[in-house]
Amino acid sequence: MMTSAGQQQYLRVIEALKENIESGGYKENDCLPSDFELAGKFEVSRTTIRKALTILEDERVLTRRHGVGLFINPKPIFTSGIEHLESVSSMIENEGMEPGKIVIDVSDKDPTDECVSQFDSAEDDKLVTIKRVRTADGEPVVYCVDNLQSKYLPNETEDLLSVSIFEAIEQSGNVRIAQAIAQIEPVGYDEEASSILRCGVDVPLLVLKQRHYTDDGEMVLYSTNYFRADKFSFHVVRKRV
């Protein structure tokens, strides 16, 4: 069992390693020294070092590559609270970077029974699937798959290059997206999304699934967005009630 002094030691190691990373002593993607070397540097036991490193892994400060070692994770460039409906473009612009989009595919098909239920579709309604890549200063950072009924897209396909999905839906003036129900899932690797975002198995993804509704409670958009976890982080502001 770790003593009180031992607990203070591992906290001291965590603080020192974080300060070293912040100051640039250890840089992004650097491999940390071995447990033995760190134990000697901080004059603590290897058990204390392992506990400190495990916590830093849980906090996603470090990533373990089995058979290789522990590496410093790049600090996310973009961070946002998910309690507000903020566009990816706004997040990128807030960091002083240039947002961009690449439309990969736009297709329409007969809606499945599940989609008919989700969107309250009529039998002759068409479901449109739009696949896009969002970029920051030209670098792909988010892969977006949006599903909606064709009646919510009054513009031609080419217009999607210059406006957001929200803008395209709301241009008719008849529909306004008021709220969304979001679900976040961590994904270690996705064959399609990881390839499109140019990241390998060592870069995890955050999948944000959202159902968007009007003030009247009608669902108009279902989106699945794959965010590079080394570029984005999300938080929730919780208040005591």
Keywords:
241 residues, 28% helix, Arc Repressor Mutant, subunit A, two-stranded antiparallel sheet, Chorismate lyase, 7 helices, alpha+beta, 10 strands
Structure in words:
The chain is α+β, with helices and mostly antiparallel strands and 241 residues long. The protein folds into two domains: 4-72, Arc Repressor Mutant, subunit A, CATH 1.10.10; 78-235, 3-Layer(aba) Sandwich (Chorismate lyase), CATH 3.40.1410. Helix content is 28%, strand content 33%. It is built from seven helices and ten strands. The protein has helices spanning 4-23, 35-42, 46-58, 88-94, 113-119, 165-170, 191-196, and strands at 62-65, 69-72, 78-81, 99-109, 127-136, 139-149, 177-187, 205-214, 219-228, 232-235. A six-stranded antiparallel β-sheet has the order 4-5-6-9-8-7. A hairpin with a 3-residue loop joins β1 (62-65) and β2. The chain is elongated. 23% of the residues are buried. The model has no long low-confidence stretch (mean pLDDT 81).
